[in-house]
Write a structure and sequence with these properties.
By secondary structure, the protein is mainly alpha-helical. The chain has 9 helices and no strands. Helices cover 74% and strands 0% of the residues.
């Protein structure tokens, strides 16, 4: 009887060790993100738009599935960074808002605030909202390295490139 139990136990252990291991979905997602980060550009340095869009989606998916993971805000920030370069304003603003609201302690939360003002200023041309957002950024992040850029942006709101060139030339 003990031999039968022992054989059954051994056979069970063999089947258990041969059966496929459960897939670590988080690791699989992280691996896909790493792959896309490494393959976002072609060999000649051109952005592969499909890879970049998939990467944005994977970053967002990671943050939605693992919101408490320390990489969640970093992935959202990277998604916003790519999105801002695609001029996808609504997606960019949504991502930046999410960082500011959900990850206030994240080291780049202040930069996310600055970038939101930048998008309103440079991509939407909404200088009134941009001014409010730059001022809020300065008030809430007085020691941030981008405070001077925010002050400069406020000074230059609504000015055409020609106006800026004339001012620069006048300063010389």
């Amino acid at each position: 009887m003990n031999k039968i139990i022992l054989k059954s136990l051994i056979i069970g252990l063999l089947f258990a060790s041969c059966s496929p291991q459960p897939v670590d979905e988080k690791q699989e997602l992280s691996n896909r993100i790493s792959y896309l980060e490494q393959h976002m550009y072609s060999e000649d340095g051109l952005l592969i738009r499909e890879h970049a869009n998939e990467l944005i989606s994977k970053y967002i998916e990671f943050a939605e599935v693992y919101p408490q993971d320390s990489m969640a805000p970093e992935h959202l920030f990277k998604a916003a960074d790519i999105s801002i370069n695609f001029n996808n304003v609504q997606r960019t603003l949504t991502l930046l808002d999410r960082i500011s609201k959900d990850y206030e302690q994240y080291e780049k939360a202040g930069l996310a605030q600055f970038l939101k003002a930048f998008v309103y200023d440079n991509q939407l041309g909404d200088t009134a909202t941009a001014r409010q957002l730059y001022e809020k950024f300065i008030l809430e992040n007085p020691e941030h390295s981008f405070v001077e850029e925010a002050h400069a942006a406020i000074r230059n709101l609504g000015k055409s490139p020609e106006d800026l060139i004339r001012e620069f030339e006048a300063m010389e």
